Amino acid sequence: MSEVVTVTERGRELAFGFEDMNRYHGGGSPAGVATAFKVLQRAFSVLSPAVPPPRRSVVIRTAFRGPGARDGFEVVTRAVSDDRFAVDRTLLRSDLGRLREDFVFAVSIGSEPVVLALREGFVTDEFLDLARTPDRTAEQEADLDDLKRMLADCLLATPADQIYDIT
User: Fold this and answer.
1) Local confidence band at 21 (pLDDT 50, 70, 90 cut-offs)
2) Would you give the DSSP letter of residue 54?
3) How far is CA 109 from the centre of its chain?
4) What digits encode the pLDDT tens for the residues 70-116?
């Protein structure tokens, strides 16, 4: 069986695979969706290791602004709809370097949050430069789409505890 992220709602377990999350998002930012998937896996393994957490108890703050991650968090936790999700640029960690500074996530389930930070070796200069290029050409957009798929594949093939450190 494929990997899933599981939460509970009204006494029922709800399991979401990457494809479920990406379908909800629409597919435009698979790397962002994969980011949300792995962040939730890592956070839940620490915050609620024995049982899936209640869906509507999860609170997420992040420096990351991508729509794929936002939608990934929403479909699993409903945190955007319920105002438990926030982009918080004070979480930006410039000490991690430009490739990782935005990839900081504070996740809580009714307690103090765990703060996750992306490890080195996942985001490349090429990816970040292209993602931050305004008014991309059609060719640049196609190249970025390829890089997004490659990053998503890399994240999905790696255990969450090898992607994110708890800080």
Assistant:
1) very high
2) B
3) 16
4) 999 999 999 999 999 999 999 999 999 999 999 999 999 988 899 99
Q: What is the spatial distance between Cα 118 and Cα 130, in angstroms, rounded to a whole number?
A: 19
Handedness of CA 127, 29, 114, 89 (dihedral sign): positive
What value, to the nearest 5°, has the Cα angle with vertex 50 and ends 58 and 108?
A: 20
Region 106-134 average pLDDT: 95
Residue ranges with strand state E in 25-163: 58-62, 85-87, 104-109, 114-118
Q: Residue written as tokens 């915050």? A: 47
Instruction: Give the global pTM.
Output: 0.96
CATH topology for the 5-166 domain: 60s Ribosomal Protein L30; Chain: A; (3.30.1330)
> Between the CA of residue 74 and those of 8, 79, 117, 166, what are the distances in Å?
14, 5, 20, 22
**Strands of the 164-166 sheet, one edge to the other:** 85-87, 58-62, 104-109, 114-118, 164-166
Instruction: For the chain, give every domain's residue range.
Output: 5-166
